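User: Structure tokens for this complex, please. No commentary.
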Amino acid sequence: MRLTRSLTALLLLVITVGCNKDPQPARKELTIAAISGVEGEALKQAAVDYETQTGVHITVTEFPYANLFEKELIDLNARTGAYDLIMLDDPWFPTFATKQLLTELTPLLQKRGQNGPDTDFIDASIAVCRHPYQSGSLYALPYVGNSQLFFYRKDLFEKHSLKAPATWEDVLTAAKTIQEKESGSGMYGYVMRAAQGNAAVADFMPIFWAFGGEMFDASGKPTVNTPEGIAALEFMVQMGKYSPPGYASFNADEVGAHLLQGTAAMSINWPAWIGKFDDPSKSKVIGKIEFTTLPGARKPGQAEIGNWLIAIPRTSRNAETAMDFLVWATTAEQMRRSALRGNPPTRKSLFRDPELVAKYPAYPAQMRSLETSRPRPRTPQWNEIENAFGIFLSKANSGALTPAEAMNQANAELEKIVQRGQ
Amino acid sequence: MPNSRRLSNAASRRHLLLPYVLVAPAVAVLLALSIYPLIYSITVSLQVGDAWSIGNFTRLASDNFFLTAMAHTFVFAVAALSCEFLLGLGLALLLNSQIRGRGFFRATLLVPMMLPPVVAAIVWRLLLNPNFGAINGTLKEIGINTEALTWTASPSLAMMSVIAVDVWQWTPFVFLVLLAGLQAIPQEPYEAALIDGSSRWQTFWHVTLPLLKPAILIVLLLRTMDLLRVFDQIFILTEGGPGFATETISLYIYRSAFRFFDFGYAAAMSFVLLALTNVISVVYIRLLRNESRA
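Assistant:
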């Protein structure tokens, strides 16, 4: 009897000790879930500066891209309140907003005497922070202003007197010419990534949109297998002929490697790569690459937006302190420091800042690209849709399916997914 | 002496209680870490949205991705298992005989197995890279056209590549178990066979193989279970691609749970995989038991 009793007592003790949260009065502390890499790095530095200024201790927990989404979603869903701020890739935002896991920011801004987000932010960047898109309430602020750019080798374009790629037809002509005339040096006209999932979809969407494709109609029905959509995929596969073999499994790294090695003449890519082309230890193409906005076809070219946002989970116990840090970290002054570390800003004033433009000559193109960019379809099921769509894009590019077959099958799968979401 | 009896009663009761107390921690850990999650995942698999339903299980039948991933899993498991078994058995027989440098070979053969699968997969991904990888680089040096050899990127080669990497990494394990089995076989049956004048093939077929059967079944059972749940190598080598060409069931389960956040469906798929693994294991174990009775 005594044994059982003492065992029970021990168990209770373990439980109480385990549950007892910090008995002292709460000191001001913030915990941030951030992406590991240059974007999170800048935030980490900002956290250190903020702490010296205000005394608020900030813990930055970093996760690689592949894990960040699941860590955040599981944590917010379980309402553990572990994070006061989270970094979000903008396509994830609808999932979090639809599940009502984020704090609405406008009331917190109003408490600070602001009516809404600073008008200096690029409109397209603020639009992805609202739920529903563009028109709804504000649940995040944009921290890193990525959007796709078109990279091309201006030295080769000049050498073969090609005109700057303004349309996808120009791109095809240039790819053909360069590959034919430079074939001796192992040069490919174009390089893309068509690995299933995010990669293939990211490299396809600008072509798809320019050809007049739309993933969903106004009622939300999938429409990827329209003649425009199929034509766009046919075009992508045709560009594949000028892309290095195996591109159907390429991710960003392989594309970057080909550009750095000087074995590919053009690609769609993200601004994060720009700095690497000037690094003599990695790059064989210093000063040879030009950056511009995405080519058009039937419609003007539009880039995919890929901003990093920062939001405050609803479960945060320090929402006001978190807001203070968030506003501070996204001020022009702080964002400028992040920009100097290589992160594109989300503020117009910084894209026009003479010192930054001198350091990053692509800024005018980046700003034009970001301002005219388009988000991936705003749906909480985006991960599943992107996965399914990417599989069929990759299949068409690896030759397992014809473009028409791929788009028809993709449409059928997307219908199933959308139906399940209703 | 009522007093002393009570005392001895209490003592014996304590004696009876002692075993329970001793196993209690183990039971508690098991309950917390295995039983509770198991029950929880059963309830999750039986819910769609917030309602009770068997929808997750009926959805399996019409999910092309699930069916294809299942088929890939079996192709992968059968092909890898056959190669690993034949190679492992050959190596074990070879290194069981008195050949020169046998110790050296035995030791070096085990190296792949000692690498964490993730590390092995990353190394192979670099080796297999069609443009910068060492394999195509070497082939090019000796004058072979590598244009079409896009190992992990071509739908027809990708499955072969992931199988080859698994064979590379896990044949040593099969070899090790079979070698141990071979060394446990006593000399007498061989001497008897020699006296009876049986050929080497007959000796192998009628003496070695039957006596090695328990080891064979164990290694097949372990490898089958491992192969059916393969995840890390494929995730790193191809992430299931190109397209869907190497997507196995564990990758699809992972995606459903952590990318699409559909835990119910992921749990339902896991239970199907569990059931299949169990059926296969039971078959092996039956065979093994018959063997030990015979």
